[in-house]
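Anyone? Bumping this.
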Amino acid sequence: MIFQSVNSVFLLKNKAIEESIYRLSDLLDELQMVVRSTFDRSYWVIAEIVSISEAKNGHLYLEIAEKENDFLQAKIRANLWSNAKRRILSEFEHTTNQTLKKGMKVLLNVTIDFHTVFGMSLNILDIDPNFSLGEIERQKQATLLKLEEEGLIDFNKQHVLTQAIQKIAIISSKTAAGYQDFIKQLSENTHNYTFQTTLFQATMQGEKASPSIIQALEKVEESSIDFDIIILIRGGGSTLDLSCFDEYQLVARLAQSLYPIFTGIGHERDISIADKVAHTYLKTPTAVADFIITHNRHFEDTLNSIAEIINQYAFSLVDNHKEQLSDLGKNLSYSAQQKMHESSQELIQNGYNYQHAAKTRLTKANFRLEKITLILKHDLNIRLRQIDQDLDLTFKNIIKESKELLQHNKNKTEQNAKYLTQHSLNSLQTNSLTVEQIEQLINLANPKQILKKGFSITRLNGKLLRSVKNIDNKYILSTELHDGILESKITNTEENEQETDL
Amino acid sequence: MSKKLTYSIALEELENIIQEIENEEISIDDLSIKVKRASTLLKFCKEKLRSTEDDINTILGEIE
């Protein structure tokens, strides 16, 4: 549209000029005129600062833009002239506690200008600090919400402080007044507590603060010293530009530190997000020092009360034991006497009892003995008489039996003598008879006698013949009879079926 | 005592001693040992609060 209107003006002029070629300055002069006449008032625009730089002459040159999802929708240069700068910036910083910087969303009152050399730009007439304040707050809330969702708000508060804080890592700048205040307050404590402080230097404000502090934090955690706490102390002086303590990256890292984080950043108005995620938040470095001293003092108080309690209990325990011992002593002597008395009484009583029992037993025993003696005497007399009688009887029996035995033996001897005489005579008679009989038997056995009886002896070739076996017919046999010898020839031989024994 | 003595350990031990005495778990025989131990711990804590690191090491050397 602008181009079209410029174009139409150009064409209108063109009619009056013969040649159609222009000098650039003429053309841009025309453009400047059109721009100034068309945009002849100021406008309020919302934009994000893309870059910002201050020239030697005191002017502030900015680049502002509009982005949608990180895509540039519009971009233009904007100038804050040195004459207006002082007023505008001081009001802005006073209200927002922040300096104008890159990435910030601002509401600007601008006029549009076209310069034939520097081109199109905006002149900043005013900046609305309340808009930025709201914007900052909105961003802060968004960061807080994110931290909350990630559970980081109270994360560092989970650290349990040591009983006495002594090893302290300080993240600050060496020359910072706040650091000096802290060291002074700490070392001049009235209880003579000692502390081991180690400074880790960092830039504490401005754009570089966030990465610088994170770096220092890493050094603390890598250190060989096992610190009790880390303290963030700001440099002091102006309270401007502490927006780094609201930056997500820094506060998220602080929250997850290995050690409890103490802040003494020194905000006047409201607390930063760094304060919110810290283990302990205090307004000033001096307040941090006081807190630590009080913490240690509290520990020493605890120690003292422990000492007191132990003392009291120990003494009362000893006293109790003394009393108990004394009571025990008394009880012991009383009990001992009592016991001895009882025992002696008992002994006497027992003595009586034993005497009586013994007497009774003795009387009884005596009585029994007498009784037994009487019975034994009686029994013995009876037994003796019996034995006497038995002996008499036995003696008589022996005499009688002896006589009988003698008589019997005498008879038997006589009998034996008679029998012996008789038997001898018989034996002689029997023997003479037998001799005659033997003579007869011998005669009977003589072959001559046998031959006389009709028996004969048959021989073959001079040998006695006893069998018909193996006898040939041609053999000549000789047969002896009692009165001579016959010779005969065999005509027939017949064997008996069964050999008969003679 | 091989473990390095810290405030927390010392305090815990002291509290245990108190509890033992309170509950009368300590016999009169052990009492002096316990009281002596308690006073050693108390002395350690108090001196450590006021000593430099070197001094602390000396104290630790005495106690451990």
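Late reply, but here is one note on the structure posted above: The first helix of chain B runs from residue 7 to 22.
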